[in-house]
Design brief:
MGAT4, 3 domains, glycosyltransferase, single chain, elongated, Spore Coat Polysaccharide Biosynthesis Protein SpsA, Chain A, Jelly Rolls
Length: 464
């Protein structure tokens, strides 16, 4: 009987590895980096056949199509009756020195408007093995954030320790000390159970750490960034360059990500595993937005209380002066160089549009999804690395009356010319008979240098 159980569980894990690899492989071509990561996942996954998981954990993992059936403890709040736009998730454990959980929660709620909070739920996984600490943390949260709990905006949960795989005798990859391996391995499982819980709460899931400060209206900034990626597939959007802070996922991907973390929990730190997951789902490059929306405020690590004063230099707390950039499509007849796509000029990502041999009459047009009033337009060309690739002569126009197919406007009103590769004009309300539907940049002189459009910024209202 014991032999049969062991053989069945081994087969179940093999099937889980197989299904995971198949489900993460929707591509037809793969580069060497993706192929290497895929081979790593296969090799490590097969090694799990020989690990000494306890029978209960194996039985729970053995179902290759479902995540382990966790009986979560609801410590405060209940899941919202309707799906939200965004779940903000974080795990918290006892720290040897300062604790920043309450400051983090305060920042989330303080920096969000009522309208934003209606479309958001915050989930805290109190994941410490010390139940006394969990109880103390819960008491502080419930006392300070009682209104948010009652309004269904804050949930506090705990995954019991009996659902955790072994945390002793783990592989010491990278020659890490045993206590560090234990800490990061448990952290992977903490995240896995948090993500599994949050999978059906909202359309998107944002992971942060329990020691951050947020930008004002970060949720609206995220919504705009998601809209700017419409039509372009993505796995992870990043709103901070530090650790596992400000990483956004489709909630529909959370079950697979949770399984992935649980399967490879002892292999490496979570932020490395997340990069492997992104690569396996064929997003080769990180998609990071600026400015960063979250700042690390902790002075001491949750691991052994070591000093950790990392800061994100790209963080900005007040985003009110930043452009609105309404959702739009980019159309150009300038030949695009490699992967420097037109859309990159309109986003707040680090990339830009790079076109070959611009000639007089060539154009670059922003076509809005919906007509929108425009207050200000700023367009910058060239770059620090290639200052010569700027627009030497060009005109900017506002367009109305979309033609058949909605990809171009039929009527244009000039609003100004480029000067030294830049354009910046305010007070554009009322320059057209109806709300503009397009903004067109037209090259007026053929130039031998290529053209970089580094940023296109559009404000739909006056600043504060």
């Amino acid at each position: 009987m014991r032999f049969f159980l062991r053989r069945s569980l081994a087969a179940a894990i093999s099937l889980l590895v197989f299904l995971l690899l198949v489900s993460l492989s929707p591509w037809t071509q793969e580069d060497s980096e993706t192929r290497e990561v895929r081979q790593w996942a296969q090799d490590v996954g097969l090694q799990q056949l020989h690990t000494d998981w306890n029978q209960r954990s194996l039985q729970k993992l053995g179902n290759a199509t479902n995540f382990p059936n966790i009986s979560y403890r609801y410590l405060a709040g209940i899941p919202p009756p309707q799906k939200k736009f965004l779940t903000v998730g974080l795990c918290s454990v006892k720290r040897k020195r300062e604790n920043y959980l309450l400051e983090t929660l305060q920042s989330i709620f303080q920096q969000s408007t009522r309208e934003e909070l209606r479309e958001m739920v915050v989930v805290v996984h109190l994941a410490d093995l010390d139940q006394e600490w969990n109880s103390q943390a819960l008491e502080k949260i419930a006392k300070r954030f009682a209104p948010q709990v009652l309004l269904g905006r804050l949930l506090v949960i705990h995954a019991p320790s009996e659902y955790y795989p072994p945390l002793e005798g783990l592989k010491r990859n990278f020659n890490d000390a045993e206590d560090r391996v234990r800490f990061r391995s448990k952290q992977n499982v903490d995240y896995a159970y948090l993500m599994n819980f949050a999978a059906n709460l909202s359309t998107y899931f944002l992971m942060i750490e329990d020691d951050v400060r947020c930008s004002k209206s970060f949720s609206t900034a995220i919504r705009k960034s998601v809209a700017s990626r419409e039509g372009s597939p993505w796995v992870t959007l990043e709103f901070s360059k530090l650790g596992y802070i400000g990483k956004l996922y489709h909630s529909s991907d959370l079950p697979r990500l949770a399984q992935f973390l649980l399967l490879f929990y002892q292999e490496m730190p979570c932020d490395w595993l997340f990069v492997h997951f992104r690569l396996l789902l064929t997003q080769k490059d990180a998609i990071r937005f600026k400015p960063s929306l979250f700042q690390h405020i902790g002075h001491y690590s949750s691991f052994q209380g070591t000093v950790n004063k990392l800061k994100d230099e790209d963080f900005e707390e007040d985003l009110s002066t930043h452009p609105d950039n309404p959702p739009a499509d980019m159309i150009t007849d300038i030949k695009t160089f490699e992967n420097y796509l037109p859309s990159k000029a309109y986003s707040n990502m680090e990339d830009y549009f790079w076109g070959k041999d611009p000639s007089a009459g060539n154009s670059f047009t922003i076509v809005f999804k919906q007509a929108t009033q425009i207050f200000r337009i700023q367009i910058l060309t060239g770059s620090k690395q290639r200052p010569g690739d700027y627009l030497q002569a060009g005109i900017v126009e506002l367009g109305t009356q979309k033609g058949r197919g909605g990809l171009r406007c039929t009527s244009y009103t000039p609003i100004g010319h480029f000067e030294h590769g830049s354009f910046d004009k305010q007070g554009l309300e009322g320059r057209t008979a109806s709300a503009p539907e397009c903004v067109r940049i037209t090259v007026t002189t053929t130039q031998s240098e290529w053209l970089i459009i580094s940023s296109i910024s559009i404000w739909t209202k006056a600043g504060p």
